[in-house]
Amino acid sequence: MDTQQAIPKPPEPVTPGDQPPRLGRVPFVDNTAAMLRDPLGFYDRAGAHEADIVGYSVAGTTGCFVCHPDLVEQVLVTDADAYEKGRLLQDTLGQFIGEGLFLLEGEEWQRQRTALQPAFYRERIAAYGDTMTAFADRTAAGWSDGQRIDVLPHMQSLTLNILGKTLLDVDIETTADALEPLLDALRKRLDPRSLSAYLPLWVPTGTNRAVNRSLAEFQSTLDDVIAARQREDERAREARDDVLSLLLSLDDETMDRERLGHQLLTFLVAGHDTTALTLTYAWFLLANNPECQQRLHEELDATLGNSQPTPEDLFELPYLDAVLNEVLRLYPPAFTVFRQPTEPVTLGGYELSTE
């Protein structure tokens, strides 16, 4: 893990022909079967193709893989106004987080982003840092030297505890019965190896029933938390610095009950598995690169000594920053970004329609 080695500039995009080439002789059949059998292998096939824009058709959804960084930059940055997040994400997640930041677009996204900005002010981040440190200490205290553990469940538990405290200011054990089944059901619902990922939520598969049931339980638990918060006196509410308190302080037009639930679920879905996976891969890579592990220990010891870390300390830990960036480069937890043109566009010489 040489974080000093420069990454070579990729060659120019390869985009042969008048239309993007497609994977498989009969894309709908071949692509759907491949995605159900081995999603990562299917992505590898697209990435290994000689072309940098490759068409696919999975379970009735057609689109293109964009595999060159210059073309990705064109979609996400240069021509961003010509694209939106698209129907696929709305069809998959709209019922859960359609009013959350992740799926909102344009002016409404900007309005909600501005309203939520105080949740990320420096003083709030500092308070969240204390919470993160406390839960990290508690997690580490449960381990013994030489003990063999499955790290991922521990990291999922750690991130869920932190999210429960920073989002709702509750001991997660009081809401775990509602949160954990919902997150587990959503995880299965979004798994591309599952047929439920390609079916409407009203189709009564076991996974869809579990999602609907756990979503209702989560909403009921959230109603209880909100009701308890509203019974508090004004001084007690103002003393809290969790995200729920911020959302409850907004007017109904900005943050009605449905939107509030969608925003909280957005933070939960976006922050749970992604963070847990990043931490898990970090431990994996550090365990397999002892020289990097040693260098990181030396930086932490020199900067922190025996004191508890604070968010401000992160600016004094460049090697830690490099390690995490390398983890995200090698094992990005969210490795696919969806975009749909809002108008006919030209990408890599290809004319792409809004469909």
Characterization of the model:
- It is globular and about 65 Å long.
- It has helices at 27-37, 39-48, 69-78, 87-97, 106-116, 122-141, 151-168, 176-189, 206-231, 234-239, 243-249, 257-271, 273-288, 290-304, 318-330; strands at residues 53-58, 61-66, 83-84, 340-341, 345-347, 350-352.
- A two-stranded antiparallel ribbon has the order 1-2. Strands 3-4 form a two-stranded antiparallel ribbon. Strands 5-6 form a two-stranded antiparallel ribbon.
- The protein contains 15 helices and six strands.
- A hairpin with a 2-residue loop joins β5 and β6 (350-352).
- α7 (151-168) crosses α13 (273-288).
- The protein starts with 26 loop residues before the first helix and ends with a strand.
- It is mainly α and 355 residues long.
- The protein has a domain at 27-85 and 339-352.
Class by helix and strand content?
mainly alpha
The low-confidence parts are none
Task: Tell the overall outline.
Answer: globular
Alpha-carbon Rg, integer: 22 Å
Helix % is: 55-70%
- Spatial arrangement of strands, main beta sheet: 1-2
Q: What's the order of the H and E elements? A: HHEEHEHHHHHHHHHHHHEEE
Let me know the average pLDDT. Answer: 88
The tally of strands reads: 6
The largest sheet, given as strand count, sense and whether it forms a barrel, is: 2 strands, antiparallel
- Distance from first to last alpha carbon: 42 Å
**How many DSSP helices?**
15
Strand content: 5-15%
